[in-house]
Amino acid sequence: MAQYDLVVIGAGPGGYVAAIRAAQLGLKVAVVERERPGGVCLNWGCIPSKAILTSAELYEAVKEGERHGIKTRGLSCDYAQVIKRSREVADRLAKGVEFLFRKNRIALFSGTGRLEGKNRVVVEANGTGARQIEAERILIATGSGERSLPGAEVDGKQILTSREALLDTEVPEAIVIIGGGAVGVEFAYIYSVFGSRVTLVEMEKQLLPGVDAEVARELERSFKKRGIEVLTGTRFHSVEKFPGRVEVMVTNGTEIKRRTAQKVLVAVGRVPLSGGLGLDTLGVEFDRGYIKVNQQMRTANDRIYAIGDVIGPPLLAHAASEEGVVAVECMTGRREQGVDHLRIPACIYCQPQIAVLGLSEEQAVARGYDVTVGRFPFRALGKAIAAGHEEGFVKIVAEKHYGEILGCHIIGYGATDLIAEVGLARTLEATTTELGGTVHAHPTLSEAIMEAALDAEGRAINI
Amino acid sequence: MAIEILMPRLSDTMEEGKILRWLKQVGDRVEVGDIIAEVETDKADMEMEALDAGVLVEIRVREGESAPVGAVIAILSEDGVSGVAVEPQPSTAAQPQVSSPLPLSAAQEREQAHAAEEGQPDSIERRATPKSMSALSSAPRQEGIAVRQTGKGAERKVREIRESRMRRDLAEAQPTPERVLASPLVRRMAEEQGIDLSQVRGSGPGGRIVKHDLEAYLSQVRREEQLSQPAERPETAVVPLRGAKEQFSRMRMTIAKRMAESMREIPHFYVTCEIDMSEVVRLRAALQASDRVSTEVTYTHFLIKAVALALERHPRLNASFVEDGREIKAEINIGLAVALEDGLIVPVLHQCEKLSLLEIAAQAHALVERARTGKPTSEDLSGGTFTISNMGMLPIDHFTAIINPPQGAILAVGAIKERPVVRDGQIRVAHTMMVTLSCDHRILDGVAGGRFLAELKQLLENPVGLLV
To answer: Using CA of residue B32, residue B38, residue B39, residue B40, what is the dihedral sign?
Structure first.
């Protein structure tokens, strides 16, 4: 029977990074994966969707070419090619992960892993039967799957989740998207650019629940300007399928609205894949399906660790990676501190982009901070005007007295790249004084960060 | 501007250096590039070359004597003012450094900018960067002194020393007593709360102190404090740890230096006088009751107005001692000593001679508020010509204050209390206060101080004059 220091179940961005870090530290590592390495992120999430979003942005830019004097006649888009390219990108990266496993001498077991005791993993592969591997420690990184919506059973044709949508080569004339979270808004943007009539339905009062309210309002404004119908405070009621169309009923509690579309995209969140692993008998504890872990990512069973989506929000690839590194470093005695989730940025890649780090203004106030807020709109920035990306703003939430940066909320073109600077500032515990005192090149979008920091201290220059 | 010349670290292992020979003497003009001294280290004999021009005004370490690395061995005066070791800076202890004639390292600039913001100046420009600042940026300048080994290969040797020093400083991860690694946020919090960071254990990369560490330290201090003091005690921001050495903040250090300097240099004399404030008490009540006056007028504001008028009539009290003379100031800029957690700051109300009582009240409110919240402008802290230190909020009858150089006098004000007074042979009760004026005897004599106080007393006892 094969013996390993560490067996990782799940080769997503959490599992594969943890495996590599463990191998770097000299551990003998095996990874169990039932699909292709890379997980949802590489195969069904971040990467292919970003490939499609890039196509959308390009298409949109070309459509707007007239304003720049660029003439296009007979412009059209072959959406099948968009999807094809996105698959090629995903394939390439998945192969990259396999290469990294080989390079770090990590054994990859294809099949579904299950624990049999705290030191043994059984891998069942289709057709080839079960294999057993022994492990000193086990790391669960099984991730999450799409949450289903009762009454809207996914058929892969008329009712889709993001997984099917990423493969679907047809652009529907009209689509109803249930769920205004990150996945919902990204697909709303994609389909609207490629010509669909989009209805976006969100149960909560705002799009992107949990995101700073000002940012969510700005996004809603922008979407409405694009012609996307945004229905907040509205629930899915029912759907009727007909040949070539669906009739979707939604309700805001007082009235029922009917929307006719070709497709429904269900994007109502994700659920942890923590079942069927044999954890229940090993003392591992759960909270609403998520595996409970301590700061060091250890479960109630001290041989078993868990990271990523399966332990709960934030459901983000880079959070899972960081947790994976923390878990491995803690289990090898190299570290004690856990993950500071206030340092993990969250990004949404529709246009305008959204990037969030740390506390929202509401959360900071709720935590009892004496809060000061600095804002800077992109329309006051030379570069943004020149580039034609005037939508959005940077909002910095800081503690008033010392200028500690508590959070940053950006909506606008390039937001997802701009947030990195604020992440560094938080890591180094720089205050608004250092952020505002850092010389930023002109003209760049990053000047908005500097100005917002200065504004938090009441001394912004260009506003 | 005075520049401290420090004993440079000329080799990795050097802990002290011996001055073999001074090639410049006190009073000599030093040009950039001049060799000013020969130093013996544990490795070799080296020459020290000046990177700043000026006049050598003081030699602290004589030939044949040794000094530890970093010690001040001589003082250079950039302005060529000789005879004073440290040129007195105008105004108050909280006078910020406004100009720096030579480019500073980034770290120095940050420190100074910070100091200016926080009102914590340094009257001496530290041309030698302490190791707590960026060692990297100071390394190429060798603490303001270029070093040349006597003999051949000197250039290379210097480069080697510099490089090895830079490497060592970069590699140096563990905090040492002279180098505290801390995040900007922590530095800001510690400075404000007067926390000695060398007492705090850092958990960040390379032992860097992060906010979490500071909070853990503070809660530890509070726990210890609670254990040793179970009884009730007033809440203070930071309770000093008993038995610990508290390292001074820059502000505290400046106060320590400047006050000692003041007492050492300035022959103080004191005049005390009791002033009947009953009329001011009545007038203030009347002003407060008037709906035409929205600004709150305090006794301090009356005092500022009265002092400004008295100074107009006694301009020699509004003066500085300078080389063979007294410089009578054109403006009457009155500094107000404001207490902070562990230190004080003296914001300055400018051109008081032009301000009415109500204007003084309005401006002083804003000024003191800015000073208290740590956001005074550099103008707020500079240019003072006379200082008032008011302890009226405490049950203090009278006290003496130390002159804030280069000013010539300071007024120490006690509490206004009901006291028995004799008027027309009768004992009556009146609101009185004791004021004590400290004067620089080099520019003022007792009678001048006395006359000034008499004027002040007259003005405050007949305060209607303060309104016009």
So the answer is: positive
Per residue in B135-152, pLDDT tens?
333 333 333 444 444 444
A and B: number of Cβ contacts within 8 A? 26
- Kindly state whether A183 is in contact with chain B, defined as any CB-CB distance less than 8 angstroms: no
Kindly list the residues from chain B whose CB atom is less than 8 angstroms away from the CB atom of residue A402: 185, 188-189, 192
CB of B188 closer than 8 Å to CB of A431: yes
Domains of chain B: 2-88+123-171 (2.40.50.100), 181-248 (4.10.320.10), 266-466 (3.30.559.10)
What amino acid is encoded at A20 in this protein? I
pTM of the model: 0.58
Q: Which of 3.40.190.80, 3.40.50.10610, 3.30.390.30, 3.40.1050.10 is the CATH number of A352-456? A: 3.30.390.30
* Cα–Cα distance list, A102 to A329, B16, B93, B348 (Å): 21, 56, 67, 71
B184 and A404 in contact by Cβ < 8 A?
Answer: no
Determine the Cα–Cα distance for residues B203 and B182; give it in Å rounded to an integer: 10
pLDDT digits (tens, 9 = 90+) for A60-90: 999 999 999 999 888 999 999 999 999 999 9
Closest residue of B to A405, CA-based? B185
Digit-coded pLDDT (tens) for B341-380? 778 888 999 999 999 998 999 899 888 888 877 677 777 8
Question: In B, which residues are within 8 Å of A459 by CB distance?
Answer: none
Answer whether A340 touches B (CB < 8 Å). no
Assess: ipTM above 0.85. no
